[in-house]
Amino acid sequence: MDNEPIILMSSREIEKMRQAGQMAAELLAYLEPMVKPGVTTLELNDAAEEWTQKRGAKSAPLGYHGFPKSICTSVNEVVCHGIPNAKQVLRDGDIINIDVTPLVDGYHGDTSKTYFVGEPSPIARKLVEVTEECLWRGIREVKPGAKIGDIGAAIQEYAEAQGFSVVRDFVGHGVGRTFHTAPQIPHYGTRGKGKKLRPGMVFTIEPMINEGTWEVEILADKWTAVTIDRKLSAQFEHTIAVTEEGVDILTLPPALVPA
Ligand code: MF3
Ligand code: CO
Ligand code: CO
After folding, report:
1. Taking CB atoms and a 6 Å cutoff, what residues make up the pocket around ligand 1?
2. Can you give the CATH number for the domain in which 134 is found?
3. Domain span holding position 90
4. Which of 6, 72, 158, 231 is the most buried (most CB within 10 A)?
């Protein structure tokens, strides 16, 4: 994925990405009120699939390298790529990341958020708030001439200062007509290192931040990534474009889109 050329999108293509990104954000907003104790992750998946089909779009995760469902639902110690399951009932105090990627007219809109199920513990609340702030700090580094390492450094500095750790095994990625392409965007790193950002680059920033150690393992289902210490993990993700002015967030939720 990282030896592919980095595609620079025209403003016309970025508008196509915005349509996909807006649909992704709307899908998360649609699912959010369903996140309550008693709901199963399969019910969230099926609601997402039905909504996506009604909009005339496809769920990119479904069948992607054999992934069996339409969205990823990652609960508590699950870092990412949790598979929706009829037997997995959400309980008060859980945290759940929902990651959606509708494919709209050939373009992918990739976004995720971590939600509280009922009332979180103090540590769960802090982890989720710090992780969202990590995403914003990463986004704030994006402008022409900045380096990819600036993004990861900003995220890592803040996460570690708050006593948490940054997952190494999964990174942000170029996204467009292809779901995962160059460049890779690590959520850790060194300022001034890595490739230079240029207008027209479109990629995700999607920090996964752990309560304990950063190390993860993959379960026997070959998808579910969990923390090796089984402590909590949270994640937030936006798809962004580098512009002449700085950054354009393509997956902003409907309420935050500027008029
Ligand atoms: N949406 C995930 C990401 O942010 C990728 C999910 S791939 C799947 O990159 F196959 F697990 F769905
Ligand atoms: Co995603
Ligand atoms: Co992604």
Report:
1. 61, 64-65, 67, 72, 81, 99, 101, 110, 204, 206, 237
2. 3.90.230.10
3. 11-250
4. 72
